[in-house]
Structure formats: C-alpha cells, structure tokens
User: Which sequence fits this backbone?
C-alpha cells in the first residue's frame, strides 16, 4: 500500500512544484503591495505617516500569495523557483538617468560629449541589439547580473575584500564570551561552519515579509 501511495504521490508532487512556481512568478509581478504603509509604533515624528489601507487587488494578491507559500515546505530554497526574475529596464530611460546622474560632477564640455555619445549609442542598432540580447538572457537565468558581478567585479577587483566586499559577523551578543582571542576565533569558526551546514541541509526557513511574502535566500 505504501509503495502504491508513493508511486501515485511522487508524480503529483513532481508536476505540482513547477506549476506552483509558474503561478508564484505570475503573482509576484504585482507590486501594488509596496505602496501599503503602516505607521511605526514607536515613531516620535511630529507628523507620523498615515496608514494606507490595501486595495481589493492587494487583498486578492495577498490571499493568493499566502496560499502558495503556505502549501510549500519549509526548506531554505523551496520558494526560489517561484520568485520574480530581475527585470531588465528600458534602454532610453536608463540612458537618460545615466546622463542626469553625471551632470553634478561633470563640466559643460564633458556633458556635451556624454550626451553626444549617448545619442550615438541610441541611434545605432548596437544599443538595441545589446538590449535584446540582455532581455533574452534574463528569460533563461534568475539574475542576469549575478554571475557577471562575481566574475568581473568581485573576482577581478583588486580592492581589499575585508572592508569592500566580504560580510562580517560578531562572536558576542550581550556579553563577551571570553577574553582569549584563540577561543573566540574558534567559536566564530565553529558557528560559521554550523550555519553553513544549516544552509546546505536547507533547514533554515525561507525569509518572508509579513509571514507570507517570500524573499530571495540565494545570498
């Protein structure tokens, strides 16, 4: 009986997970929930921000997202396949923002050269060809920037990693565990290794905003 149940259950789960991921990606396209604000409980501002009531669309979206995430397991990367891909911004607005961001630090002569170069880039087919290739790349990868960042920014950079790139951690909370540096280093190393085991075994629950909005755990 257990064998028959396993034969029936596994194909259903195998088909359900991709279907759920597709639904989650469609639901994640909605961004109206970002405008719903709540006042800070301990705010000392003279004019604290007012609470914004969620719209009907936001409530429907929240219900769908809650059901999809509630039915998922608690494994660390269980919801990764359903997250929204990093969107590719439009070419012309990106060029316009690039030009405006350089205006405070460039002279008039430099700005003229930058504007001419930007217009040439937009007038030629090269800019839109690169944009099309980038859009196609975004369809087949979760993040079209991450591997380039790791290869050309993180690994190729000659800057010091300790203060520019690497994360850090503390070996104490409310009190010092010991004054022996060797013991503290051993404790920190053991804690990091233990946390790495948690990630490898996927025993860390996915981070969710408000208890049901999944966040990326691939950090």
Assistant:
């Amino acid at each position: 009986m257990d064998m028959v149940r396993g034969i029936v259950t596994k194909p259903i789960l195998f088909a359900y997970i991709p279907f759920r991921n597709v639904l989650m990606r469609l639901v994640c396209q909605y961004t109206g929930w970002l405008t719903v604000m709540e006042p800070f409980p301990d705010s000392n501002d003279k004019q604290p921000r007012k609470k914004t009531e969620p719209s009907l669309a936001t409530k429907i979206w929240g219900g769908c997202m809650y059901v999809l995430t509630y039915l998922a397991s608690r494994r660390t990367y269980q919801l990764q396949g359903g997250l929204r891909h990093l969107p590719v911004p439009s070419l012309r607005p990106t060029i316009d923002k690039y030009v405006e961001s350089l205006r405070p630090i460039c002279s008039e002569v430099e700005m003229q050269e930058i504007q001419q170069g930007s217009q040439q880039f937009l007038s030629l087919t090269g800019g839109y060809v690169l944009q099309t290739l980038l859009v196609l790349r975004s369809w087949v990868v979760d993040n079209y920037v991450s591997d380039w960042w790791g290869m050309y920014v993180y690994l190729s950079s000659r800057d010091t990693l300790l203060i520019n790139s690497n994360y850090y951690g503390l070996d104490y909370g409310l009190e010092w565990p010991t004054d022996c540096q060797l013991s503290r280093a051993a404790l920190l190393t053991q804690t990091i290794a233990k946390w790495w085991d948690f990630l490898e075994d996927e025993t860390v629950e996915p981070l969710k905003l408000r208890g049901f909005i999944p966040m990326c755990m691939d950090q």
